[in-house]
Write a structure and sequence with these properties.
Strand content of chain A: 25-35%
Helix content of chain A: 10-25%
Number of strands of chain A: 5
Structural class of chain B: alpha/beta
Structural class of chain A: alpha+beta
Largest sheet of chain A: 5 strands, mixed
Strand order of the largest sheet of chain A: 2-1-5-3-4
Oligomer: heterodimer
Shape of chain B: globular
Radius of gyration of chain B: 27 Å
Chain lengths: 81, 492
Amino acid sequence: MSSITVRYFALLQELTGLESQRLELSANDTADTVYQRLSQEHGLSIAPTRLRVAINDRFADWTDPLNPEDRVAFLPPMSGG
Amino acid sequence: MGFSLTETRIDTAALSQAMARPHSGGFVSFAGWVRDHHQGRAVSGLSYAVYPALAQSEGESILDEATQHFEIDAARCIHRTGNLAIGDCAVWVGVAAAHRDAAFAACRYIIDQVKARVPIWKHEHYADGRSAWVDCAGCHPMAPAERYSRQMAVPGFGDQTQLRLKQAHAVIIGLGALGCPVADLLASAGIGRLTLIDPDLVELSNLHRQPLYTEADCGERKVTVAAARLRERNRALDIRVRPHAYHAGNAAELLRGADIVLECTDNPACKQLLSVTARQQQVPWLIGGLYRHQGALYVAPQSAAHGLCWDCLNADTGESCQDAGVLGPVPAALGAMLAHQALLQLAQLPSPVRGAWNVLDLRNGSWDRIEPRRRRHCQCQGSAENWSIQALDPELHWLDLRTQAERAQQPLRKAEAVSREQLHEAGFLKPEHHYLLICSRGVRSDTATRELRQAGHVNVWSLDGGLSRHAQRPGDAQVASDCGCDSRRASA
Protein backbone atom coordinates (compact mmCIF):
# COMPACT_ATOMS: atom_id res chain seq x y z
CA MET A 1 0.00 0.00 0.00
CA SER A 2 1.26 3.46 -0.73
CA SER A 3 1.30 6.10 1.93
CA ILE A 4 2.52 9.61 2.59
CA THR A 5 3.89 11.45 5.62
CA VAL A 6 2.02 14.45 6.93
CA ARG A 7 3.95 16.94 9.07
CA TYR A 8 2.43 19.40 11.50
CA PHE A 9 3.85 22.69 12.71
CA ALA A 10 2.97 25.28 15.37
CA LEU A 11 -0.78 25.49 16.02
CA LEU A 12 -1.54 22.35 14.01
CA GLN A 13 1.03 20.40 16.00
CA GLU A 14 -0.69 21.60 19.16
CA LEU A 15 -4.19 20.74 17.93
CA THR A 16 -3.35 17.28 16.57
CA GLY A 17 -0.83 16.46 19.29
CA LEU A 18 1.39 15.06 16.54
CA GLU A 19 4.59 16.11 14.83
CA SER A 20 3.83 13.84 11.90
CA GLN A 21 1.76 10.86 10.85
CA ARG A 22 1.59 8.31 8.08
CA LEU A 23 -1.51 8.27 5.91
CA GLU A 24 -2.77 5.78 3.31
CA LEU A 25 -3.08 7.40 -0.08
CA SER A 26 -6.39 7.00 -1.94
CA ALA A 27 -6.85 7.29 -5.69
CA ASN A 28 -6.83 10.91 -6.95
CA ASP A 29 -5.77 12.29 -3.59
CA THR A 30 -4.69 15.92 -3.50
CA ALA A 31 -3.51 18.05 -0.59
CA ASP A 32 -7.09 19.29 -0.38
CA THR A 33 -8.71 15.84 -0.06
CA VAL A 34 -6.06 14.73 2.43
CA TYR A 35 -6.63 17.82 4.57
CA GLN A 36 -10.40 17.19 4.54
CA ARG A 37 -9.86 13.64 5.85
CA LEU A 38 -7.37 14.77 8.48
CA SER A 39 -9.53 17.64 9.71
CA GLN A 40 -12.32 15.10 10.31
CA GLU A 41 -9.96 12.68 12.02
CA HIS A 42 -8.58 15.36 14.34
CA GLY A 43 -11.65 17.56 14.57
CA LEU A 44 -9.79 20.51 13.05
CA SER A 45 -11.93 23.55 12.38
CA ILE A 46 -9.32 25.58 10.50
CA ALA A 47 -10.48 26.21 6.94
CA PRO A 48 -7.87 25.52 4.26
CA THR A 49 -8.14 29.14 3.13
CA ARG A 50 -6.16 30.06 6.26
CA LEU A 51 -3.40 27.58 5.52
CA ARG A 52 -0.69 27.06 2.96
CA VAL A 53 0.46 23.67 1.84
CA ALA A 54 3.95 22.34 1.15
CA ILE A 55 4.83 19.11 -0.62
CA ASN A 56 8.37 17.74 -0.27
CA ASP A 57 9.65 20.98 1.26
CA ARG A 58 8.24 23.24 -1.45
CA PHE A 59 5.14 25.41 -1.44
CA ALA A 60 2.44 23.69 -3.47
CA ASP A 61 -1.15 24.08 -4.59
CA TRP A 62 -4.03 22.41 -2.83
CA THR A 63 -5.03 20.75 -6.06
CA ASP A 64 -1.60 19.21 -6.71
CA PRO A 65 -1.80 15.41 -6.94
CA LEU A 66 0.05 13.41 -4.29
CA ASN A 67 2.43 10.56 -4.92
CA PRO A 68 3.52 7.70 -2.65
CA GLU A 69 6.09 8.75 -0.04
CA ASP A 70 5.40 12.46 -0.49
CA ARG A 71 5.95 14.61 2.59
CA VAL A 72 3.02 16.98 3.00
CA ALA A 73 2.78 19.86 5.46
CA PHE A 74 -0.10 22.17 6.26
CA LEU A 75 1.17 25.56 7.39
CA PRO A 76 -0.71 27.99 9.65
CA PRO A 77 -0.29 31.76 9.02
CA MET A 78 3.38 32.59 9.42
CA SER A 79 4.50 34.96 12.13
CA GLY A 80 8.26 35.27 12.01
CA GLY A 81 10.13 38.49 12.62
CA MET B 1 24.89 31.91 2.90
CA GLY B 2 22.53 34.91 2.74
CA PHE B 3 19.73 33.52 4.88
CA SER B 4 20.20 31.46 8.00
CA LEU B 5 18.47 30.20 11.11
CA THR B 6 20.20 30.09 14.47
CA GLU B 7 19.44 28.74 17.91
CA THR B 8 21.99 31.03 19.54
CA ARG B 9 22.23 34.76 20.21
CA ILE B 10 22.48 36.99 17.10
CA ASP B 11 25.70 39.04 17.16
CA THR B 12 24.52 42.14 15.28
CA ALA B 13 27.85 43.99 15.60
CA ALA B 14 29.80 41.18 13.95
CA LEU B 15 27.15 40.79 11.25
CA SER B 16 27.23 44.54 10.47
CA GLN B 17 30.99 44.55 10.22
CA ALA B 18 30.96 41.64 7.80
CA MET B 19 28.77 43.62 5.39
CA ALA B 20 31.45 46.24 4.60
CA ARG B 21 32.50 46.31 0.93
CA PRO B 22 34.70 48.78 -0.94
CA HIS B 23 31.95 49.34 -3.51
CA SER B 24 29.23 50.03 -0.93
CA GLY B 25 28.55 53.59 0.15
CA GLY B 26 25.67 52.72 2.43
CA PHE B 27 24.59 50.03 4.87
CA VAL B 28 21.08 49.63 6.31
CA SER B 29 20.13 47.08 8.92
CA PHE B 30 16.96 46.12 10.73
CA ALA B 31 16.85 44.27 14.02
CA GLY B 32 13.62 42.86 15.44
CA TRP B 33 13.61 42.55 19.25
CA VAL B 34 11.34 40.65 21.59
CA ARG B 35 9.12 43.26 23.27
CA ASP B 36 7.30 42.92 26.56
CA HIS B 37 3.80 43.53 25.28
CA HIS B 38 1.50 42.42 22.44
CA GLN B 39 -1.98 43.81 21.82
CA GLY B 40 -2.23 45.07 25.37
CA ARG B 41 -1.01 41.85 27.03
CA ALA B 42 2.20 41.64 29.05
CA VAL B 43 4.63 39.27 27.33
CA SER B 44 7.29 37.41 29.32
CA GLY B 45 9.06 35.65 26.46
CA LEU B 46 8.49 33.69 23.29
CA SER B 47 9.58 30.70 21.28
CA TYR B 48 9.77 30.16 17.54
CA ALA B 49 8.71 27.01 15.72
CA VAL B 50 10.19 26.57 12.29
CA TYR B 51 10.00 24.35 9.22
CA PRO B 52 13.75 24.39 8.57
CA ALA B 53 14.07 23.15 4.97
CA LEU B 54 11.30 25.34 3.61
CA ALA B 55 12.32 28.34 5.75
CA GLN B 56 15.83 28.10 4.34
CA SER B 57 14.76 27.92 0.70
CA GLU B 58 12.08 30.61 1.04
CA GLY B 59 14.48 32.93 2.91
CA GLU B 60 17.07 32.51 0.18
CA SER B 61 14.45 33.20 -2.50
CA ILE B 62 13.56 36.47 -0.78
CA LEU B 63 17.22 37.58 -0.68
CA ASP B 64 17.62 36.61 -4.33
CA GLU B 65 14.56 38.69 -5.22
CA ALA B 66 15.93 41.67 -3.29
CA THR B 67 19.27 41.41 -5.08
CA GLN B 68 17.48 41.21 -8.38
CA HIS B 69 14.99 44.03 -7.82
CA PHE B 70 17.18 46.59 -6.06
CA GLU B 71 20.65 47.85 -6.88
CA ILE B 72 22.40 46.42 -3.85
CA ASP B 73 25.78 44.80 -3.28
CA ALA B 74 24.93 42.31 -0.55
CA ALA B 75 22.02 41.19 1.62
CA ARG B 76 21.92 39.00 4.69
CA CYS B 77 19.15 37.83 7.00
CA ILE B 78 19.34 35.71 10.14
CA HIS B 79 16.37 34.51 12.18
CA ARG B 80 16.33 33.02 15.67
CA THR B 81 14.64 29.77 16.59
CA GLY B 82 13.98 28.29 20.03
CA ASN B 83 13.30 30.22 23.24
CA LEU B 84 13.89 33.98 23.50
CA ALA B 85 13.72 36.46 26.38
CA ILE B 86 12.54 40.07 26.36
CA GLY B 87 15.10 42.24 24.55
CA ASP B 88 16.65 39.39 22.57
CA CYS B 89 17.25 39.97 18.89
CA ALA B 90 14.76 37.78 16.99
CA VAL B 91 15.65 38.68 13.42
CA TRP B 92 18.33 40.74 11.71
CA VAL B 93 18.49 42.05 8.13
CA GLY B 94 21.48 43.86 6.64
CA VAL B 95 21.85 45.39 3.18
CA ALA B 96 24.91 47.04 1.64
CA ALA B 97 24.54 49.16 -1.49
CA ALA B 98 26.31 51.85 -3.45
CA HIS B 99 23.52 54.30 -2.55
CA ARG B 100 21.18 54.60 0.42
CA ASP B 101 17.81 54.55 -1.40
CA ALA B 102 18.32 51.02 -2.66
CA ALA B 103 19.65 49.88 0.72
CA PHE B 104 16.61 51.22 2.61
CA ALA B 105 14.13 49.85 0.08
CA ALA B 106 15.72 46.41 -0.08
CA CYS B 107 15.98 46.12 3.70
CA ARG B 108 12.29 46.96 4.03
CA TYR B 109 11.40 44.48 1.31
CA ILE B 110 13.33 41.67 2.95
CA ILE B 111 11.90 42.04 6.44
CA ASP B 112 8.32 42.39 5.12
CA GLN B 113 8.66 39.33 2.92
CA VAL B 114 10.35 37.27 5.64
CA LYS B 115 7.54 37.98 8.07
CA ALA B 116 4.88 37.06 5.53
CA ARG B 117 6.44 34.11 3.72
CA VAL B 118 9.04 32.25 5.74
CA PRO B 119 7.51 29.31 7.66
CA ILE B 120 8.36 30.46 11.19
CA TRP B 121 5.74 30.70 13.92
CA LYS B 122 5.86 32.81 17.06
CA HIS B 123 4.52 31.31 20.29
CA GLU B 124 4.11 34.07 22.85
CA HIS B 125 4.24 33.45 26.58
CA TYR B 126 2.26 35.94 28.62
CA ALA B 127 2.87 37.23 32.12
CA ASP B 128 -0.40 35.65 33.26
CA GLY B 129 0.99 32.19 32.46
CA ARG B 130 -0.97 31.65 29.25
CA SER B 131 0.47 31.37 25.77
CA ALA B 132 -0.73 31.64 22.17
CA TRP B 133 0.39 31.28 18.57
CA VAL B 134 0.60 34.80 17.17
CA ASP B 135 -1.69 35.65 14.22
CA CYS B 136 -3.62 32.42 14.64
CA ALA B 137 -6.48 33.96 16.54
CA GLY B 138 -8.34 34.05 13.25
CA CYS B 139 -7.58 30.38 12.57
CA HIS B 140 -10.22 29.05 14.90
CA PRO B 141 -13.77 28.16 14.04
CA MET B 142 -13.80 28.83 10.32
CA ALA B 143 -12.29 32.28 10.37
CA PRO B 144 -12.31 32.61 6.55
CA ALA B 145 -16.02 32.06 6.60
CA GLU B 146 -16.25 34.88 9.08
CA ARG B 147 -13.84 37.14 7.26
CA TYR B 148 -15.32 36.56 3.82
CA SER B 149 -18.84 35.65 4.92
CA ARG B 150 -20.60 38.42 2.99
CA GLN B 151 -18.57 37.64 -0.11
CA MET B 152 -19.08 33.88 0.20
CA ALA B 153 -22.83 34.39 0.48
CA VAL B 154 -22.91 35.58 -3.15
CA PRO B 155 -23.94 32.72 -5.49
CA GLY B 156 -20.82 31.29 -7.11
CA PHE B 157 -18.54 32.51 -4.29
CA GLY B 158 -18.68 29.68 -1.76
CA ASP B 159 -15.89 27.65 -0.12
CA GLN B 160 -14.42 26.33 -3.35
CA THR B 161 -14.27 29.76 -4.98
CA GLN B 162 -12.70 31.32 -1.89
CA LEU B 163 -10.01 28.66 -2.02
CA ARG B 164 -9.53 29.36 -5.73
CA LEU B 165 -9.07 33.06 -4.95
CA LYS B 166 -6.52 32.22 -2.27
CA GLN B 167 -4.54 30.16 -4.76
CA ALA B 168 -4.72 32.83 -7.45
CA HIS B 169 -1.89 35.11 -8.53
CA ALA B 170 -2.88 38.56 -9.79
CA VAL B 171 -0.38 40.94 -11.38
CA ILE B 172 -1.15 44.66 -11.14
CA ILE B 173 0.79 46.97 -13.44
CA GLY B 174 0.68 50.54 -12.16
CA LEU B 175 -0.11 51.43 -8.54
CA GLY B 176 -1.63 54.81 -9.31
CA ALA B 177 -5.22 56.00 -9.54
CA LEU B 178 -6.60 52.69 -10.83
CA GLY B 179 -4.03 50.40 -9.26
CA CYS B 180 -4.83 51.62 -5.72
CA PRO B 181 -8.51 50.58 -5.63
CA VAL B 182 -7.81 47.46 -7.69
CA ALA B 183 -5.06 46.24 -5.34
CA ASP B 184 -7.03 47.15 -2.24
CA LEU B 185 -10.16 45.30 -3.35
CA LEU B 186 -8.31 42.23 -4.58
CA ALA B 187 -6.32 42.03 -1.33
CA SER B 188 -9.51 42.41 0.68
CA ALA B 189 -11.19 39.68 -1.35
CA GLY B 190 -8.41 37.24 -0.42
CA ILE B 191 -6.44 36.88 -3.67
CA GLY B 192 -3.54 34.80 -2.35
CA ARG B 193 -0.69 36.33 -4.27
CA LEU B 194 -0.36 39.85 -5.66
CA THR B 195 2.55 41.21 -7.67
CA LEU B 196 2.68 45.01 -7.68
CA ILE B 197 4.65 46.70 -10.48
CA ASP B 198 5.41 50.42 -10.52
CA PRO B 199 8.67 52.39 -10.71
CA ASP B 200 7.27 55.65 -9.32
CA LEU B 201 7.53 57.46 -6.02
CA VAL B 202 4.49 58.89 -4.24
CA GLU B 203 3.98 62.58 -5.10
CA LEU B 204 1.72 65.19 -3.55
CA SER B 205 -0.22 65.47 -6.82
CA ASN B 206 -1.15 61.75 -6.55
CA LEU B 207 -3.06 62.05 -3.29
CA HIS B 208 -6.39 63.30 -4.65
CA ARG B 209 -6.97 60.05 -6.52
CA GLN B 210 -4.64 57.40 -5.01
CA PRO B 211 -6.11 56.42 -1.65
CA LEU B 212 -3.43 53.94 -0.55
CA TYR B 213 -1.00 56.84 0.08
CA THR B 214 -0.80 59.61 2.67
CA GLU B 215 1.15 62.88 2.90
CA ALA B 216 3.79 61.11 4.95
CA ASP B 217 4.42 58.69 2.06
CA CYS B 218 5.53 61.38 -0.42
CA GLY B 219 8.94 60.49 -1.79
CA GLU B 220 8.55 56.78 -0.92
CA ARG B 221 8.24 54.03 -3.50
CA LYS B 222 4.61 53.39 -4.38
CA VAL B 223 4.93 49.61 -4.44
CA THR B 224 6.59 49.51 -1.02
CA VAL B 225 3.97 51.72 0.61
CA ALA B 226 1.12 49.92 -1.16
CA ALA B 227 2.40 46.49 -0.08
CA ALA B 228 2.62 47.62 3.55
CA ARG B 229 -0.97 49.00 3.47
CA LEU B 230 -2.30 45.84 1.83
CA ARG B 231 -0.60 43.65 4.43
CA GLU B 232 -2.35 45.65 7.12
CA ARG B 233 -5.57 44.88 5.28
CA ASN B 234 -4.88 41.16 4.92
CA ARG B 235 -1.84 39.56 6.49
CA ALA B 236 -2.47 36.17 4.95
CA LEU B 237 -1.43 37.36 1.48
CA ASP B 238 1.79 36.85 -0.39
CA ILE B 239 2.55 40.31 -1.81
CA ARG B 240 5.55 40.81 -4.09
CA VAL B 241 6.77 44.16 -5.32
CA ARG B 242 8.67 45.12 -8.46
CA PRO B 243 9.84 48.74 -8.33
CA HIS B 244 10.38 48.85 -12.09
CA ALA B 245 8.44 49.82 -15.18
CA TYR B 246 6.77 47.06 -17.17
CA HIS B 247 8.89 46.92 -20.30
CA ALA B 248 9.79 44.62 -23.15
CA GLY B 249 12.73 43.25 -21.18
CA ASN B 250 10.66 41.94 -18.25
CA ALA B 251 7.17 41.67 -19.80
CA ALA B 252 7.13 37.92 -20.30
CA GLU B 253 8.86 37.06 -17.03
CA LEU B 254 6.45 39.15 -14.94
CA LEU B 255 3.42 37.35 -16.36
CA ARG B 256 4.80 33.86 -15.77
CA GLY B 257 2.51 31.92 -13.47
CA ALA B 258 -0.05 34.73 -13.31
CA ASP B 259 -3.74 33.87 -13.31
CA ILE B 260 -4.78 37.37 -14.27
CA VAL B 261 -3.10 40.69 -15.09
CA LEU B 262 -4.59 44.17 -14.71
CA GLU B 263 -3.07 47.09 -16.59
CA CYS B 264 -3.66 50.23 -14.55
CA THR B 265 -1.13 52.73 -15.92
CA ASP B 266 -1.75 55.88 -17.95
CA ASN B 267 0.81 54.76 -20.49
CA PRO B 268 -0.48 53.57 -23.90
CA ALA B 269 2.87 51.91 -24.74
CA CYS B 270 2.54 49.79 -21.62
CA LYS B 271 -1.00 48.76 -22.55
CA GLN B 272 0.16 47.90 -26.02
CA LEU B 273 2.99 45.76 -24.69
CA LEU B 274 0.73 44.01 -22.20
CA SER B 275 -1.86 43.22 -24.86
CA VAL B 276 0.82 41.48 -26.88
CA THR B 277 2.51 39.65 -24.01
CA ALA B 278 -0.69 38.55 -22.29
CA ARG B 279 -2.04 37.19 -25.57
CA GLN B 280 1.16 35.31 -26.22
CA GLN B 281 1.25 33.85 -22.71
CA GLN B 282 -2.51 33.26 -22.61
CA VAL B 283 -2.93 35.16 -19.35
CA PRO B 284 -6.38 36.76 -18.93
CA TRP B 285 -5.93 40.53 -19.08
CA LEU B 286 -7.86 43.68 -18.25
CA ILE B 287 -7.10 47.26 -19.15
CA GLY B 288 -8.41 50.49 -17.67
CA GLY B 289 -8.07 54.07 -18.84
CA LEU B 290 -9.18 57.43 -17.45
CA TYR B 291 -10.15 60.74 -18.98
CA ARG B 292 -11.52 63.62 -16.88
CA HIS B 293 -15.05 62.41 -15.93
CA GLN B 294 -14.82 59.15 -17.85
CA GLY B 295 -13.21 55.79 -17.48
CA ALA B 296 -12.93 52.94 -19.96
CA LEU B 297 -12.56 49.27 -19.21
CA TYR B 298 -11.59 46.40 -21.49
CA VAL B 299 -11.76 42.79 -20.38
CA ALA B 300 -10.15 40.47 -22.89
CA PRO B 301 -12.23 37.52 -24.05
CA GLN B 302 -11.34 34.26 -22.31
CA SER B 303 -9.82 32.82 -25.44
CA ALA B 304 -6.73 34.74 -26.52
CA ALA B 305 -7.54 33.80 -30.10
CA HIS B 306 -10.58 36.05 -29.99
CA GLY B 307 -8.84 39.05 -28.47
CA LEU B 308 -7.72 42.07 -30.40
CA CYS B 309 -4.35 43.73 -30.04
CA TRP B 310 -4.02 47.09 -28.35
CA ASP B 311 -3.67 49.00 -31.58
CA CYS B 312 -7.04 47.72 -32.73
CA LEU B 313 -8.57 48.38 -29.34
CA ASN B 314 -7.06 51.72 -28.70
CA ALA B 315 -9.70 54.36 -28.35
CA ASP B 316 -7.24 56.48 -26.43
CA THR B 317 -7.61 60.21 -26.52
CA GLY B 318 -3.89 60.58 -26.86
CA GLU B 319 -3.60 62.29 -23.48
CA SER B 320 -2.71 60.97 -20.05
CA CYS B 321 -4.14 62.14 -16.70
CA GLN B 322 -1.20 64.44 -16.47
CA ASP B 323 -2.33 66.26 -19.60
CA ALA B 324 -6.11 65.91 -19.46
CA GLY B 325 -6.84 65.79 -15.74
CA VAL B 326 -9.10 63.37 -13.89
CA LEU B 327 -11.41 63.58 -10.89
CA GLY B 328 -10.73 61.18 -8.02
CA PRO B 329 -14.12 59.41 -8.04
CA VAL B 330 -13.58 58.25 -11.64
CA PRO B 331 -10.64 55.90 -10.91
CA ALA B 332 -12.34 54.82 -7.67
CA ALA B 333 -15.39 53.71 -9.64
CA LEU B 334 -13.53 52.25 -12.59
CA GLY B 335 -10.96 50.53 -10.33
CA ALA B 336 -13.83 48.88 -8.46
CA MET B 337 -15.22 47.65 -11.78
CA LEU B 338 -11.83 46.28 -12.83
CA ALA B 339 -11.49 44.45 -9.51
CA HIS B 340 -15.03 43.11 -9.86
CA GLN B 341 -14.30 41.79 -13.32
CA ALA B 342 -11.10 40.19 -12.07
CA LEU B 343 -13.04 38.42 -9.31
CA LEU B 344 -15.59 37.12 -11.81
CA GLN B 345 -12.79 35.86 -14.02
CA LEU B 346 -10.95 34.14 -11.15
CA ALA B 347 -14.21 32.66 -9.89
CA GLN B 348 -14.75 31.31 -13.41
CA LEU B 349 -18.08 33.10 -13.67
CA PRO B 350 -19.41 34.62 -16.89
CA SER B 351 -19.29 38.34 -17.54
CA PRO B 352 -21.32 40.22 -20.14
CA VAL B 353 -18.73 42.97 -20.54
CA ARG B 354 -15.91 40.79 -21.88
CA GLY B 355 -14.53 41.47 -25.32
CA ALA B 356 -15.61 45.10 -25.64
CA TRP B 357 -14.81 48.52 -24.34
CA ASN B 358 -17.13 49.69 -21.60
CA VAL B 359 -17.12 53.41 -21.01
CA LEU B 360 -18.31 54.87 -17.74
CA ASP B 361 -19.26 58.54 -17.56
CA LEU B 362 -19.69 59.65 -13.98
CA ARG B 363 -21.39 62.91 -14.99
CA ASN B 364 -24.59 61.05 -15.86
CA GLY B 365 -23.80 57.53 -14.69
CA SER B 366 -23.91 56.12 -18.22
CA TRP B 367 -22.21 52.83 -19.05
CA ASP B 368 -21.78 52.33 -22.79
CA ARG B 369 -20.50 49.31 -24.59
CA ILE B 370 -18.31 49.98 -27.62
CA GLU B 371 -17.45 47.05 -29.86
CA PRO B 372 -13.82 47.24 -30.93
CA ARG B 373 -13.10 46.59 -34.57
CA ARG B 374 -10.10 44.90 -36.00
CA ARG B 375 -8.16 47.30 -38.21
CA ARG B 376 -7.70 46.54 -41.84
CA HIS B 377 -4.41 44.73 -42.39
CA CYS B 378 -3.93 43.88 -38.72
CA GLN B 379 -3.50 40.17 -38.19
CA CYS B 380 -4.09 40.19 -34.49
CA GLN B 381 -7.43 38.43 -34.30
CA GLY B 382 -7.03 34.70 -34.15
CA SER B 383 -3.32 34.75 -34.65
CA ALA B 384 -1.67 36.10 -31.56
CA GLU B 385 1.52 34.33 -32.46
CA ASN B 386 1.89 36.37 -35.64
CA TRP B 387 1.94 39.54 -33.68
CA SER B 388 4.95 40.95 -31.93
CA ILE B 389 6.05 44.13 -30.27
CA GLN B 390 8.42 44.67 -33.16
CA ALA B 391 5.41 45.77 -35.15
CA LEU B 392 5.27 49.08 -33.30
CA ASP B 393 8.68 49.94 -34.70
CA PRO B 394 9.83 52.24 -31.88
CA GLU B 395 12.64 53.50 -34.11
CA LEU B 396 10.22 55.36 -36.34
CA HIS B 397 9.90 59.10 -35.61
CA TRP B 398 6.45 60.46 -36.34
CA LEU B 399 6.22 63.94 -37.81
CA ASP B 400 2.81 65.60 -37.91
CA LEU B 401 2.32 68.04 -40.81
CA ARG B 402 -1.22 69.06 -39.86
CA THR B 403 -2.26 72.54 -38.74
CA GLN B 404 -2.70 73.44 -35.12
CA ALA B 405 -6.48 73.33 -35.53
CA GLU B 406 -6.38 69.84 -37.05
CA ARG B 407 -4.11 68.63 -34.28
CA ALA B 408 -6.42 70.02 -31.62
CA GLN B 409 -9.36 68.17 -33.17
CA GLN B 410 -7.55 64.85 -33.40
CA PRO B 411 -4.52 64.74 -31.09
CA LEU B 412 -1.61 62.49 -31.93
CA ARG B 413 0.57 62.52 -28.89
CA LYS B 414 3.38 60.41 -30.20
CA ALA B 415 4.04 62.70 -33.17
CA GLU B 416 6.12 65.84 -33.28
CA ALA B 417 4.36 68.78 -34.96
CA VAL B 418 6.42 70.21 -37.83
CA SER B 419 5.92 72.56 -40.77
CA ARG B 420 6.88 71.71 -44.35
CA GLU B 421 9.53 74.46 -44.21
CA GLN B 422 11.12 72.96 -41.11
CA LEU B 423 11.52 69.59 -42.87
CA HIS B 424 13.80 71.17 -45.44
CA GLU B 425 15.97 73.04 -42.95
CA ALA B 426 19.52 71.74 -42.99
CA GLY B 427 20.16 69.30 -40.18
CA PHE B 428 16.50 68.91 -39.16
CA LEU B 429 16.24 65.36 -40.43
CA LYS B 430 18.98 63.15 -39.07
CA PRO B 431 20.30 60.64 -41.61
CA GLU B 432 20.45 57.92 -38.95
CA HIS B 433 16.73 58.25 -38.11
CA HIS B 434 13.65 56.88 -39.86
CA TYR B 435 10.62 59.16 -40.22
CA LEU B 436 6.92 58.71 -40.83
CA LEU B 437 5.19 61.83 -42.14
CA ILE B 438 1.55 62.18 -41.19
CA CYS B 439 -1.23 64.50 -42.30
CA SER B 440 -5.01 64.26 -42.52
CA ARG B 441 -5.50 62.82 -46.02
CA GLY B 442 -2.01 61.77 -47.04
CA VAL B 443 -1.56 64.48 -49.70
CA ARG B 444 0.77 66.81 -47.83
CA SER B 445 2.77 63.94 -46.37
CA ASP B 446 3.08 62.28 -49.76
CA THR B 447 4.31 65.48 -51.46
CA ALA B 448 6.76 66.20 -48.68
CA THR B 449 8.05 62.63 -48.74
CA ARG B 450 8.75 62.81 -52.47
CA GLU B 451 10.50 66.18 -52.11
CA LEU B 452 12.65 64.89 -49.27
CA ARG B 453 13.57 61.70 -51.08
CA GLN B 454 14.63 63.73 -54.11
CA ALA B 455 16.79 65.76 -51.74
CA GLY B 456 18.51 62.56 -50.64
CA HIS B 457 16.58 61.64 -47.45
CA VAL B 458 15.89 57.97 -48.09
CA ASN B 459 14.54 57.04 -44.65
CA VAL B 460 11.29 58.98 -44.96
CA TRP B 461 7.82 57.52 -45.49
CA SER B 462 4.29 58.85 -45.79
CA LEU B 463 1.24 57.49 -43.96
CA ASP B 464 -0.74 56.37 -46.97
CA GLY B 465 -4.16 58.03 -47.07
CA GLY B 466 -3.43 60.04 -43.93
CA LEU B 467 -5.25 59.77 -40.64
CA SER B 468 -8.70 59.93 -42.23
CA ARG B 469 -8.17 56.60 -43.96
CA HIS B 470 -7.03 54.82 -40.82
CA ALA B 471 -9.13 56.43 -38.14
CA GLN B 472 -12.51 54.74 -37.78
CA ARG B 473 -14.08 57.25 -35.41
CA PRO B 474 -13.08 60.34 -33.46
CA GLY B 475 -10.26 59.59 -31.13
CA ASP B 476 -9.05 56.71 -33.24
CA ALA B 477 -6.15 58.65 -34.64
CA GLN B 478 -3.71 56.69 -32.59
CA VAL B 479 -5.26 53.41 -33.64
CA ALA B 480 -4.46 53.96 -37.22
CA SER B 481 -1.11 55.54 -36.94
CA ASP B 482 0.17 53.08 -34.36
CA CYS B 483 -0.74 50.36 -36.82
CA GLY B 484 1.88 47.69 -37.07
CA CYS B 485 0.89 46.62 -40.58
CA ASP B 486 2.85 47.45 -43.68
CA SER B 487 0.36 49.89 -45.16
CA ARG B 488 2.02 52.92 -43.66
CA ARG B 489 5.09 52.34 -45.74
CA ALA B 490 3.22 51.42 -48.87
CA SER B 491 3.48 54.78 -50.52
CA ALA B 492 7.18 55.20 -49.97
